[in-house]
Amino acid sequence: MLGAIGFGAAAWKVAVRDRSIGWDARCREGHLGRVLNSARFVILPWVQVQNLASKVWALAAARLPEDFAARYGERVVLLETFVQMPRFAGTCYRAANCRYLGETTGRGKCDRTHRAALPRKAVFVYPLAADFRAALGVAACTHWPWR
After folding, report:
1. Tens digit of pLDDT for each residue in 87-121?
2. How far, in Å, CA of 75 to CA of 43, rounded?
3. C-alpha torsion angle, residues 60, 64, 66, 67 (rounded to 10)
């Protein structure tokens, strides 16, 4: 075995992601199902193949839209992932052309006290469609960083 990659439901609220997309709460609620989270991604430490992680990520990203639509009947248009910095650098995501948006607040999905108790994580996204913003319910935007 070389490693593993797994995808799941997008995080409910991520301020830096939601701001960069241009979502308000209502828009996010209606379109969050088109965002997929890379929940797990690991290449085992004894596997020493140059650029393997970014290649695996790119292959998975190319395959996901078709597979997701076939299984769930909806088009996924944006991938997100979170990297615990400084423990990990997020190098493979940068190499695969993911975009760094900023950091989480460190509150986590189960926060009820409104206090940062978890490590902050870097937020990366990867558009799977040129019209991803429109598919997420937001009109075309000129400030998206890599248009």
Report:
1. 777 888 998 899 999 988 766 555 555 555 667 89
2. 28
3. 100
Cα–Cα distance for residue pair 104/83, rounded to 1 Å = 10
The β-bridge partners of 9 are: 36
Using CB atoms within 10 A of its CB, is residue 26 exposed (0-12), middle (13-18) or buried (19+)? exposed
For residue 43, give the nearest of 16, 3, 75 by alpha carbon.
3
Taking 80 as the threshold, does the pLDDT of residue 147 lie above it? no
- Domain 3-135, what architecture? 3-Layer(aba) Sandwich (3.40)
pLDDT digits (tens, 9 = 90+) for 46-70: 999 999 999 999 999 999 999 999 9
Is the CB of residue 83 less than 8 Å from the CB of residue 122?
yes
